[in-house]
Description:
About 65% of the residues lie in helices and about 0% in strands. It is built from six helices and no strands. The chain has helices spanning about 5-35, 40-45, 65-85, 90-100, 115-125, 135-140. The chain is elongated. The two termini are about 20 Å apart.
Amino acid sequence: MGRAMRAHRERHAACLLAGMTRFLQTILWCSLLALLGGSERASALEAQQLFAPIKIVSGARTLKDMRATHQAWAERVLIEPMRQRTAGKPWQEAAVHFAQRTAFVLLPSNDIGDAPELRDEANRVEGAGGRDPLIFCLCLRLRREPATYDPA
């Protein structure tokens, strides 16, 4: 790496650090004032925002809307074909119910860290003989990452 590139990265890191330091100082100061009873002063400081306020446009799609759209898509494209593939299997009912409950795990913006009941259900469906590619995919997605997992 060249000297100019290294200097640029160091300046960039210094600017980020300065901005983050100011942000944290403001948050800590407001918290301290609120704890000490200076809520009017804390409110005034909070009013001087470091960042532009988030504006929610009326009619904007929310995560709830996105999940509903995704669930309808999953039902049509994934679950219905699985229902046809597994027709007559003794574990079909449990597999379909499991797929309907866990289709949201295929969304890129989900957090499944707090889903132990879904993990238990995945184990039950697999243990009952659920041998469908969709079931395998959902069960794998619900498994915990090993402690040594390194995404880099």
